[in-house]
Amino acid sequence: MMSLFITLIISFIVLLILVKRLNFLRIGGIPTILDGLFFGSIFFILLPIIYSFLVGEIEITNIPEFSPHRDSDLLIYCLLSILFFGVLTLTPKNNRITKNSEDFIDQRIQGLFILILVLYVLSILLTFFASGKLSGNSHWYRGNAQVFEKGAIYVLLGQLHNVGRVAIPGLCIYFQLKYLQKDKIFKPHFFLAFVIIVLELFMAGNRIVILFFAFSFLIPFFLFKRFKILISMALISLPMMVLAEIWPMARGLMFTEKVTVERVAEVISIAYEKGQSADNDSDLFLILTEGSNIAALKFIKDKYPKNKSFSYGETLILKSFGALIPKSIWPNKPDGVGHEAGEAAIGGVSLILNVTILGDAWANFGWFGIIYIGMILILINKLIPTRYLEFISPIFFMTSIAAWRFDFSFYFITIYILIFYLSIIKVPLVKYYSNKMAFKLFN
Q: How confident is the model over 282-292, as a mean pLDDT?
């Protein structure tokens, strides 16, 4: 009973901070890296915790289940971390307003958005065709991994793809907020979401981008009370949600044979029929919030330092700074702690479970881990050049949300790729064509 009482008290305080931050965004506030960290902690940690009181426990195969009553130490760790992240959003440097001007979206931002979009499409196409998955006798995940082993250029392409699928929804939130403030709608948002989701599902095999774009629509339209649009989109998206639910099975079968249109239709049909006929005990709420990850987090919390010494920066620092270095050059590059939870769940199989940022923080520094993360993100937020603030902050907002699904090193990957973007856009020919394409998209 005490666990529930503490959860409700902290949840109420967190809700007050959340409302304050949402109101700030509505009046023109810039979504930041700290806001994304806070929002992500609510969605991926707090909501599953609250839900666990209803269902009793949350589990993953072969890993001890999480119980909010029994695992009070983990519960307190999670709740205080979320509260700490919420307090960080209230710092002065995190409260900057967008500039008001007739040209309400800076041309530089428009051009950079086009560059990111073009590089994203090129990177996903090149890595997909280089994987040889179309020829068959392949696997969606192993095929991707084998491409990155070919050399540094493919690692760069892979990271352009990873950052692009996060940066584009992040900038769409920013554009949609700016348009809604002028009582307009950023219509390309809908088309881009559809195209990128299709590319991600088929070529990369990933569903997570659906969630990123869901945030990109929900936040601005909810803030400006465009509920009819949200309801219409929810109804239109129902087939996409069905496809997303059966996609793990479909992608596993997709590339075992040569890919044709008929093959794709056949695989989706098989996956749907098996999903309908099987005893489906999957929990939709835990699927949406990826709430089962809290059981993987419990595994790490129980293991460190009781059974294994803290890593002291191996994955939070070393892996982050060497994020773009392929294993062919750095064979002993840290894998992260997710593989330890994956090995416990399914021994003998290369599986990485998401232990969330909190798992990464704990395995490295214990309680100090969340303070380290907060300090690093405050520093990143402070160091963003003012002239790039409105462009970079929304990207980091979505990066922070995505990092709950990936790991802490994704922040540094984003920094490296942003430096690459800002260097490329200075090339006169690139700048000219990016601005030319931007004019057609935004006018």
A: 83
Cα angle for residues 34, 36, 40 (degrees, 5° grid): 125
Question: Is residue 213 predicted with pLDDT exceeding 90?
Answer: yes
- Contact at 8 Å (CB) between 56 and 67? yes
Cα(169)–Cα(400) distance, rounded to whole angstroms? 12
CA–CA separation, 274 and 278 (whole Å): 6
Please state, in angstroms and rounded to a whole number, the distance separating the CA atoms of residues 350 and 58: 23
Q: Is the pLDDT reported for residue 73 higher than 80?
A: yes
C-alpha 154/C-alpha 160 separation (Å) is: 10
Cβ–Cβ under 8 Å, residues 201 and 247: yes
Structural contact between residues 300 and 362, judged by C-beta atoms closer than 8 angstroms: yes
- Are 245 and 287 in contact, with CB atoms under 8 Å apart? yes
The DSSP letter of residue 279 is -
Distance CA 276, CA 271 (A): 9
What is the C-alpha to C-alpha distance for residues 83 and 46, in angstroms, rounded to an integer? 10
Structure pTM?
0.90
> Among positive and negative, which fits the CA dihedral 60, 41, 140, 327?
negative
- Cβ atoms of 88 and 382 closer than 8 Å: no
Question: CA 58, 44, 397 angle in degrees (round to 5)?
Answer: 170
DSSP secondary structure code for residue 201 in this structure: I
Q: Which two tokens stand for residue 410?
A: 């994704």
